[in-house]
């Protein structure tokens, strides 16, 4: 379904992200009592009680007067090209600033439908402030009075948005592959995303902490729709509240993703990568490793780096490794092809009959172990789920399953069934009263 798009714009710290969260119905955007938290364009789907759905965009603060001003304005201009409606947010508690008037003039040049939203009016008495009448000078008609924190006026605003939006086009679209791009701060995640989509979709700077929140970017490759999610770099110990919430957003982006691209700097990697990979692995998400900045690696360093990556990231030995460079575009097609491959692999399904035929072959190759004279019996096997592929083996007693034999079965599933590049879950269910259930990822 092609969804209508609505963007919230305004100067810094007028409550755009709070309004975004309230309209979406959950805390999607990071909110802090300081300007400049939102720098890129963030999107989320809004589902109204009456059944209508649209995409809402949260944007950075315009006319910020800092080093991000030009980059933020450029991102917003690009995002507004295909929006159907703009919500112009102003702080209703204070007089309009010169920046508010400049933004209003700029919006008129874009020839977009605009609704004026006065924020932070949590008390009806605020509407009696003489400064409120100045809002009509902006030239966008009757303002909507809202307070996101207390949901004041937001339901009426939603109704007005739905009335003004065009009808959804009844066009079926293929499910987009959601990809979280993860890695330590300043590893080149945003540069890699921009290189993949061929556009400056997210802000890039030569120091850590540029990306503060997760940012979604839609594009297509080889006929497949993608949503790339640029995440904030996760530090070992966040130094401020914004970084703490950035960490939570990054972890949440991994959990919601279909595939994670772990961006690795060959000159600096270790514990950071292991922690982030573990978040993805525990959630059963396929991982593709992008060994970035490969244009800087000399022939003399090549073998040393490959050995170090294999040693330090041994627990990711099954994950595809693609050598990339955001500067030269080296390896980008292979990276996306690997993402598609592991996405499709994680969704393969085998019938119970086929699984039991394979089980018969595997037990003939290597007999099940004995536990104090009592043999392990594999009664039947079924694939219970996909993404991650989950296999349930019914046994006479799961306590009879030894670690070596468990690993043997995992290897057979990976190699014989084609799951060699994705995490799988193997569950043993015991029919014995003394047994229980054991899960292996």
Helix % is 25-40%
Taking pLDDT < 50 over at least 5 consecutive residues as the criterion, the unreliable ranges are: 29-38, 202-213
Distance between the termini: 35 Å
Order of helices and strands: EHEEHEHEEHEHEEHEHEHEHHEEEEHEE
CATH architecture of the largest domain: 3-Layer(aba) Sandwich
What structural class do you assign from the helix and strand content? alpha/beta
- CA radius of gyration is 26 Å
Overview of the structural elements:
- With 441 residues, the protein is an alpha/beta fold.
- It folds into three domains: 4-164, 3-Layer(aba) Sandwich (Rossmann fold), CATH 3.40.50; 177-345, Rossmann fold; 352-440, GMP Synthetase, Chain A, domain 3 (2-Layer Sandwich), CATH 3.30.300.20.
- The protein is built from eleven helices and 18 strands.
- The strands form four sheets. A six-stranded mixed sheet has the order 2-3-1-4-5-6, with helices on both faces.
- A hairpin with a 5-residue loop joins strand 2 (42-47) and strand 3.
- It is elongated, with a radius of gyration of 26 Å.
In short:
This protein has 441 residues and is an alpha/beta fold. 31% of the residues lie in helices and 22% in strands.
Write the layout of secondary structure elements.
Elements: E1 4-9, H1 16-24, E2 42-47, E3 53-58, H2 69-79, E4 85-91, H3 98-110, E5 114-119, E6 144-145, H4 154-164, E7 177-182, H5 189-197, E8 215-221, E9 224-230, H6 241-256, E10 259-264, H7 271-282, E11 287-291, H8 299-312, E12 321-323, H9 332-345, H10 352-365, E13 370-371, E14 374-375, E15 378-385, E16 390-395, H11 403-417, E17 425-430, E18 437-440
Parallel strand pairs: 1-3, 1-4, 4-5, 5-6, 7-9, 7-10, 10-11, 11-12, 16-17
Antiparallel strand pairs: 2-3, 8-9, 13-14, 15-16, 17-18
